[in-house]
Amino acid sequence: MSDKTKPEIDFIEGPAPTELVITDLEVGDGAEATPGATVDVHYVGVDFETGEQFDASWDRGASIQFPLAGLIKGWQDGIPGMKVGGRRQLVVPPAQAYGPAGSGHRLGGRTLVFVIDLLGVR
User: Fold this and answer.
1) Is 11 one of the catalytic residues?
2) Catalytic annotation on 47?
3) At the topology level of CATH, where does 21-121 sit?
4) Which of 79, 98, 116, 117 is the catalytic position?
5) S-S: 108 plus which of 13, 55, 67, 103, CB 3.0-4.6 Å?
6) pTM of the prediction?
């Protein structure tokens, strides 16, 4: 179990990026996530423009496990290389998140910011 607490995501100044931005907030020293891995993560997601949280595994009281292949492209591209114990921020443009506005997803057209804690890899 991690001794980390739910991260606060600082508001990011300036225009939303058009490419995925990966920032390691803490580098882990455990197993490394690979593109085909199943990961166990805690995460917080906020809207880049408003800073409003739209989802957080922390609020449900449990981490989530899933295969990277089933996730948005920003996660598929942004999590590999991360090591267990690490905390990484991803700024994900719409093309790598839920597509353009009007795509049918409530987050379509939005640039999203995630802070992800990698708890396990298999």
Assistant:
1) no
2) no
3) Chitinase A; domain 3 (3.10.50)
4) 98
5) 103
6) 0.94
Residue 7 has what pLDDT? Answer: 95
DSSP state of 70: G
> Is the model's pLDDT at 1 over the cut of 80?
no
Q: Which tokens in the block code for residue 109?
A: 């057209």
Copy the structure tokens of residue 122: 């298999």
Annotation marks residue 117 as catalytic = no
Candidate list 10, 11, 24, 54, residue with the active-site label: 54
Of the candidates 9, 40, 47, 55, the residue annotated as catalytic is 55
Query: Out of 72, 79, 116, 117, which one is annotated catalytic?
Result: 72
Give which of 68, 82, 76 is closest to 119, Cα–Cα: 82
For residues 21 and 8, give the distance between their C-alpha atoms in angstroms, rounded to a whole number: 18
Residue 92 exposure: Cα atoms within 13 Å on the Cβ side: 31
Catalytic residue among 48, 79, 114, 117: 114
**pLDDT tens by residue, 16-70:** 999 999 999 999 999 999 999 999 999 999 999 999 999 999 999 999 999 999 9
Active site residue 98: yes
Q: What does the pLDDT read at residue 29?
A: 97
